[in-house]
# Entry
Amino acid sequence: MTETETNTYDVVVLGAGPVGENVADRTRAAGLTTAVVESELVGGECSYWACMPSKALLRPVLAQADARRLPGLAEAVRGPLDTPAVLARRNWFTGDWTDDGQVEWIKSIGADLYRGHGRLTGPREVTVGDTVLTARHAVAVATGTRAALPDLPGLAEVRPWTSRDATSAQSAPGRLVVVGGGVVATEMATAWQALGSQVTLLVRGKGLLDRMEPFAGELVAEALTEAGADVRTGTSVASVSRVDGTVVVVTDTGERIEADEILFATGRAPRTDDIGLETVGLTPGSWLSVDDSLRVDGTDWLYAVGDINHRALLTHQGKYQARIAGAAIAARAAGTDLAENAPWSAYAATADHESVPQVVFTDPEAAAVGLSLTEAEAAGHRVRAVDVDLSSVSGAGLYGEDYKGRARMIVDLDEEILRGVTFVGPGLGELIHSATIAVVGQVPIARLWHAVPSYPTLSEVWLRLLEAYRDN
# Structure
C-alpha cells in the first residue's frame, strides 16, 4: 500500500497557466506559502496553444499585408510567405512545447510545483497522486477551458482540429475548412490562408465577430474574401466524415465540401469536470460563479480565477483577476474584513463588468473595449454612437495606400463619458489601451479634448471622433 504524504501551505493553486502563475506570484509576494499543481505544461494554454503561438503565426501575415500597402515596398513582398520559417519561429515562441523556463520561474518566486492531476478531495484540500495538499487560507482553481465540439455523429472518427491543432500544426493543409465566426475562427482563417491553405470559413450566424460592433465582422469578412478565403455566413454543418483521408463536409443546404483538415472553433467549455467539485458541494463540469474578489459563491476559502468563472474568457483579463484574487487572499489571511469591498478597489475585479478590452489579430485588426451600442442600450444607458471613417485621419493614409478602417465610440449622454470604443483597421490594436483608460477612468468628454493626439499618427482618430460628436 502506498503511503500518503500530507503537505500544508497557506495557498494551493490548481492550474499553472498564466492565471495560476499570477495568483501564486501575488500570494508569494504577500509572504504566503504557496503550492502550484499542474497536469500539463507549466505556462498553460496561452503559452503553448493559444495567445503566443497564434500571434506568432499572425505577425508575419500582418506585416506582409502592411508592406503590400506601401508603394516602394509592395513589389518586394509580392511572393508567398516562407511557411516553414514562420512555423519555426512559432515553435521557438512555444519553447518547442517544453516548459523548463516556466518551471524555473515558479521556483524563482519560492512556490512549490507539483506535477500531476490535482483534484479537490474536501474543503481546503487538493490531492495529487499520493500527496495531499492542505491550504490554511485558500485554494484557487485556475484550470481554464478546453475546446467545445458540437454533437455531430462520427465526429471523433474525423479527428477534427481544435484550436490546439490549429496553432501547433507543423505544415499547412492544402484545404482547410474552419467552422465558426469568432476570434479563433477568424484569426486561424487569416493565418492559414496566408500560409498556403485554401480556407473555407463556415459561419452559422449572419456575420463574423458577433460580440463586437457589426462593422468589425463586415470589414474582416471583406478582407478574408479579398485574401482568397471562401467566407460563407448563415451556413451550418449537417454532417462530417473522413473518406480515404479526405474530410467531407455536408452543409445544412446539402452542399458538399471536401478538405484536408477541418477546424471547429465553436466555443469553450470549463475544465472543471474532473477536479473534485462534487467533494465540496459543487457540480462537476460547471462554470463557477464568483464575487468580485473571485471567491466562489457560498464558500469562504475557494477561488475560481480566469476562464472557469465565465466572466471574460481572455488571458489578460484572467491575469487581472489573478492579481485581484491574490490581493484578496492575502488581505483575508491577514485578518482584513472585505465585506464592504468597494468597486474599483484593490480587491474587486470591477473591470470584468463593462470595461473588458480585446484585440482580434486579423487583417484588419479589430479592437474593442467596454460596451457595444446594443449592449449599452440593453443595459439601460442613454447613449449615442459616434462613427468615423479612418480615411479622414492623416496617419491612416501614411500607414498605407487605400487604408480601410472605422472607429466608433459610445457616448453616455447623461454622464458625458464613454461606455465603449471600437477600432477596426490595420495597426489599430495598439490604440485600444488609450480607449481602455478612457472607459475605465470614466474620463469626461470635456477633458478628452485636452488629450491631444500626436500628428500625424493613427491616434488622431480620437480628435475626429470628438469632432463628430460635437458637430452632429
Summary: The longest strand covers residues 131-141. The two ends are 79 Å apart (CA to CA). The mean pLDDT is 97.
